[in-house]
Write a structure and sequence with these properties.
The protein is α+β, with helices and mostly antiparallel strands. It folds into 2 domains: 205 residues, BirA Bifunctional Protein, domain 2; 43 residues, Roll (SH3 type barrels), CATH 2.30.30. It is 29% helix and 28% strand. Strands 1-2-3-7-6-5-4 form a 7-stranded mixed β-sheet, sandwiched between helices. Strands 11-10-9-8-12 form a 5-stranded antiparallel β-sheet, with no helix packed on it. A hairpin with a 3-residue loop joins strand 4 and strand 5. It is globular, with a radius of gyration of 18 Å. The termini are far apart. The structure holds biotinyl-5-AMP. The site of biotinyl-5-AMP has 29 residues, from helix 2, strand 3, strand 6 and strand 7. Biotinyl-5-AMP binds next to helix 2, strand 3, strand 6 and strand 7.
Length: 262
């Protein structure tokens, strides 16, 4: 649906940082893996890889990202920001806020779930996977991958087995999405937020992120590898980690976990 058109997309991009090179593939294992290989071939910062279908779309922690052909958006971009590896969640946050603002252009009100989900009415419409490439202990490149469910209908969601937890723009507003337009808007939003990050620093991004995050002071369930507990969500600390408060009053910094509203 709405075949991806490289020339159309490229000619409508601002390209200050992101979108300087565009690679559109018919099919791929994972756009993140493809982009990471380009990094090793010295591809420029700002390159973007998009595919019509992913055979091995990835989530965090070896999870899968369901990526049927022709319906949704699967894309990854490469950047070389001067940040430490521990600060890489900045790129996840930039991706999430750019996605929320893009969805708003389609009359969709969405919200962010820490660290990497975008939800509509508590169902996941988008996820971000940010990976890094280190050379001699220094962060050289970041690959940030964004998947957005655009035109999956309820049958497609049912057959994916995700209908309980996921949704798409089409399901939410009943209108098919022109993938070229969505991609242009998303890439240009990313470009603006990344530019603002370079000029204004990470506090600016944290503030933008927090204003699209509605879980402050709400109860959540924190699920980690070896532990699970309920707590109240408090917000981001200075490094972008999530602070929650347990029943005992003790505050805990969450570095890696799923934090879901109760
Ligand atoms: C994510 O992981 O949400 C990150 C997803 C990133 C996908 C993009 S697509 C382009 C680029 N190339 C890649 O290979 N990946 C990136 P996580 O928070 O771990 O969530 C994964 C979980 O989301 C799965 O275990 C499912 O429960 C659910 N899920 C899988 N596919 C989904 C989909 N299409 N829509 C909504 N939820 C999905």
């Amino acid at each position: 649906m709405y075949k991806l058109d490289k020339d159309l997309v490229f000619s409508n991009l601002t390209k200050n940082h992101i979108g300087r090179k565009l690679i559109i593939l018919e099919e791929v294992d994972s756009t993140n893996d493809y982009a990471m290989k380009l990094v090793n071939e010295k591809y420029v910062s700002g390159s973007v890889v998009i595919a019509d279908i992913q055979y091995a779309g990835k989530g965090r922690l070896e999870r899968k990202w369901h990526s049927p052909r022709g319906l949704n958006l699967y894309m990854s971009f490469i950047l070389s920001p001067r940040i430490k590896a521990a600060e890489v969640n900045i790129l996840t946050f930039i991706s999430s806020i750019a996605t929320v603002d893009t969805l708003a252009k389609y009359s969709i009100q969405s919200e962010i779930k820490w660290p990497n989900d975008v939800l509509i009415n508590a169902k996941k419409v988008s996820g971000v996977l940010t990976e890094i490439n280190m050379v001699k202990n220094k962060l050289e490149h970041v690959v940030a991958g964004i998947g957005v469910n655009l035109n999956m209908d309820s049958d497609a969601l049912l057959s994916s087995g995700l209908s309980e937890i996921a949704t798409s723009v089409y399901i939410e507003n009943g209108k098919p999405v022109n993938r070229n337009e969505f991609l242009i808007t998303l890439l240009n939003n990313l470009d603006v937020f990344y530019d603002n990050f370079m000029k204004l620093g990470k506090e600016y991004i944290y503030n933008q992120w927090s204003s699209r995050w509605y879980s402050r002071d709400k109860p959540v369930r924190v699920v980690m590898d070896n532990e699970q507990f309920d707590a109240i969500c408090k917000g981001l600390d200075k490094e972008g980690f999530m602070i929650v408060q347990r029943d005992s009053g003790q505050t805990v910094k969450i570095v890696s976990a799923d934090v879901s509203p109760l």
